[in-house]
Every structure is written in C-alpha cells, then in structure tokens.
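B., you asked whether I could sanity-check this one before it goes into the benchmark set. Here's the sequence:
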Amino acid sequence: MANKRTFLLAVVLLCACPVLVAGCKTTDVIDGLGAVQVGGFRLSESQVGALKKTAVALEKAFTDITPEQEYYVGRAVGATLLGKYQPRTDPQTVQYLNLVGQSLARVSDMPETYGGYHFVLLEDEGINAFAAPGGLIFISRGMLRCCKDEDTLAAVLAHEIAHIQLKHGLQAIKTSRLTSAFSIMATEGAKQAGGVQLAQLTGIFEDSIHDVTATLVNSGYSRAFEREADVAALEILGRAGYDQRALVGMLGEMKQRLNPQGLDFAKTHPDPADRMADLAPQLAGVKTPTGMALRQQRFQRLLGSI
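And here's what the prediction gave me:
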C-alpha cells in the first residue's frame, strides 16, 4: 500500500508541476516524510501533505461510490440540467409523470435509491431523455411528443430507469474520476496560494465538475449500454403490465422525427433502427396486455394537450 501511494505521489508531482512550480521538468527526490525536491524547487512539509492526500484520493478513485455519493452526483447533474432547461411544474403533469415512473421503478431491479426516484418534464423541444445517477430522470417535451400513449411513455421511462439500475452513469463517471482527485489537490493548494494562483485553482475545480457532467449528459452511452438498457426496459415493462412492443414503437417514431445532424438524441444515441433490430428477437411471441384502452384515455386526458 505504501509503495503504491509513493508511486501515485510521484505521478501527482509530475502532473502538478505546472501548477506548483513554474518550469518544472523532473522530480529529483521524494522524501517520504519530509520535504520534496522538484526540479530545483523544495516543497514544504505542508505541501507534501497536500500531495499525499491527493495520492490517497487517486488510490481510491476506482472504488465503488456509495448510494449517498451517487445521489449527490445525480443532484449536481440535475442542477446543471435545470440551469439549462425550464421544468414543467403544473401539478397535474408532475403527478401523472411520477405516477407512471414510480410504478415502473418499483418493479425494477433497483426499486429504491438513496434519494428516491424523481421524474421531471423539461420544457425543451429537442428529443431527449436523461438519467442522472441516484434516480433523477428527465424527459423533454420533444420526447414526450413522440409518445402516442401511456405505454410508449412508460417505455421511455423504463429505459431511463434501466440506465440507473445498471449504473451506466457511474461507469461513465469512472472514466473521469481522476478529475475529482485533482480537485482535492486544488483545494489543498488554495490554502497556500493567493491572488491569481487561487483563481486558477478555482477554475481547475470548476472545470472538473463540468467534465463529469459533460460525460453523463453530452457524450451519451455506447450501443452496448443502450442495448443493455433496452433489454432491461422490456423486463420492467412486462412486470408492470405495459406493452413491451411499445419500446420498438417509440424507437420507430423517433427514427422518423430525429434530425441526424441535430444536437439532441440523434447526437448522443445509436441509430434507433439498430436498436429496433437488436430488440426484435426479444419480442417474439409477446402478447398484447390488458388495460391499454384505459391507459390511452388517461394519457390523452392528462398529457394530450402537451
């Protein structure tokens, strides 16, 4: 463990050189408990302590985060989204969207999260849906307009719930977890820096938050992840009594509406036609469930005007 931390400390020193020491080229000496000599510059014991703390953070960067941490990551992503998109807040829409979403979440493989599931309609004409870690699910007005009935709405929400239960968002974050460790370094360095240096360190911290959010929201998932979420969504829909074929119907509607050069779903997701082809074997022999007419009436009454 000590050797691993020493190695990570060396890596941090090399990476931190431009911040801590102007013109730094090499690390000459690492004194485990005392000062550190970096390219002719001698770091103080307090600076060494800050770097050691970063090394420990790097060492832990690849461990699973807790449900509580997942919740706070999701809140940060959600705050970013709500800073960009206006949520619809009328009680009827909010209540209905959450009625459908909660019914699906309860029969998923992850029926509970630290902060619970929350479903939000965004006032955006783009065709989009987002699943933030911890249970925050956002669907745009443009995506909702692709829904012809409650079963297709359920298909969209089930797919997003599947992303959460499969922890796809967290797996995306792990590719940029090192930025969080370097944020700690910035915080520690700020204790000894001032003026311009402090502003630079604050900027590094803010950029790291942006990187994590962009990974979740803008980059999108691979076809493999989308296929996993589609298969899990079929299971959720079946358990809840919805028509599993509604997912394919939704993808077909999206295929017709999406602009291949657009900045919404078309940019961040695989071609709907490819996903439909992947799902075809899963739907062989699926029967029409009961209650579809009543659900259709409810959908039209509550969301038809949207």
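One thing to flag: The longest strand covers residues 118-122. Otherwise nothing jumped out at me.
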